[in-house]
Each structure stands twice: as C-alpha cells, then as structure tokens.
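Most newcomers find our protein records easier to grasp once they have seen one. A learned vocabulary of local backbone shapes supplies the integers on the structure line. Here is such a record, shown just as it appears in the course material:
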Amino acid sequence: MYIERCTYHCLPGRLPALLKRFETATLRLFEKHGFRPVGFFVTEFGPSRPELMYMLKWDSLDQRMAAWTAFRNDPEWHEARIASESDGMLVDMMSNEIMIPTAFSPLK
C-alpha cells in the first residue's frame, strides 16, 4: 500500500475557490478514475496558510500513474480547471510525497 500526500499552497484569498472546485468537480473525477481518498484537510495553524492537503491510497505505483494520467487527460478536468480559474490562478505551489506505512502503523 502507498499513501500519496498532496499539498496545494493557495494564493491569498483563493482557498475557497479551490475547495469549491474539489467539491463540485475534482471529487467526482477522482471517483471516475479510481482514486481512493483517505482524507482532506485545510491548515488551521502553521507557517503555510492557506493550504489544502489530502491523502490518497494506492495499491501500486502503476495504479497511481494510470489514474493520474487518465485524470490529467480528461476533458472534464480541463474544463473544470479553466472555469475555476476564470478569476485567476488558485494555487501558487503544489507538492506531493509517496509514503509507505511502518510495521506499527494502524493504517496498512
């Protein structure tokens, strides 16, 4: 099992628009392409506000690559992204990590 942690560092004032895009388009496309979300979070306190962080569960890296490729090539994604950024970009920087659970992790 692999857990992918994705963090989107939003431009000032743009977090609400990013959350709306996730709620109205991204989550549906994630489901369509076989993504398995573990959780979605916004930063309440910390040096990197505002940001959205979410985790995805994958059985293999091949599954991850195939799902992300299909998602990025989906015309619905392109339409949703363009529509959500009609007032300007939402994200300043994005980062992700692929993690594997330790032997003592409750999530395996």
User: Anything to note?
Assistant: The chain has a mean pLDDT of 94. The domain at 1-55 is CATH 3.30.70.100 (Alpha-Beta Plaits). Residues 63 and 95 are 19 Å apart (CA to CA).
